[in-house]
Amino acid sequence: MFYRPEEGHGLPHNPFNAIVAPRPIGWISSRGADGQDNLAPYSFFNAVAYVPPQVMFASTSAKEDRGDTKDSVANIRETGVFCVNIVSYALRDVMNVSSGSYPAEVDEFARAGIEKAPCETIDCARVAAAPANLECRLTQIVQLEGPSNFVVFGQVTGIHMRDEHLVDGRFDVTTFRPLSRLGYRDYACVDNLFSLARPDD
């Protein structure tokens, strides 16, 4: 099968996000200028640089009460900070609750019964039970082609890791089984690893 995206695929569901998979989930916490906390998962997310460490996530839709975007991007525009909370398999259900399209005044931490913890380097809440959290300062927001497509880039200013996931000096993802997004409504978790040596190692 071949199709041109502008002409449509003719399938019951869009295959694009099933092709680009798995994708890590950026569970983004943010706080508006009014102090309102927000928490939402984004599957267009990744780390993009080592020195200094930087991450990105993309928001691709809008809400009526936020104009051209959603709560996360609107808050980050106002305050210039956000936190990435890593999603473990154990947190899958509360992460899913936080994905709902709620009014801007709804605190998804409270809605999903998620405990907050303060960040150290930014004025933002983080998910206390997450295996790791990346505190970030906004570096730029890039508008992409299409309505409401924004990529948010941030520099990591603080990193939290739960001690139980540090094994022999390494952050061991098998101890918490990070969740990833596949296509449609499908997810997967990492529960086994293998290593490959590079040719120049």
From TrEMBL:
Domain Flavin reductase like as annotated: residue spans: 18-173
Signal peptide annotation: none
Native source organism of the sequence: Dinoroseobacter shibae (strain DSM 16493 / NCIMB 14021 / DFL 12)
Source domain of life: Bacteria
Protein name stated in the entry: Conserved hypothetical FMN binding protein
An example molecular function term from Gene Ontology annotations: oxidoreductase activity, acting on the CH-NH group of donors, NAD or NADP as acceptor
SUPFAM superfamilies according to UniProt: FMN-binding split barrel (SSF50475)
Gene3D superfamilies listed in its UniProt record: Electron Transport, Fmn-binding Protein, Chain A (2.30.110.10)
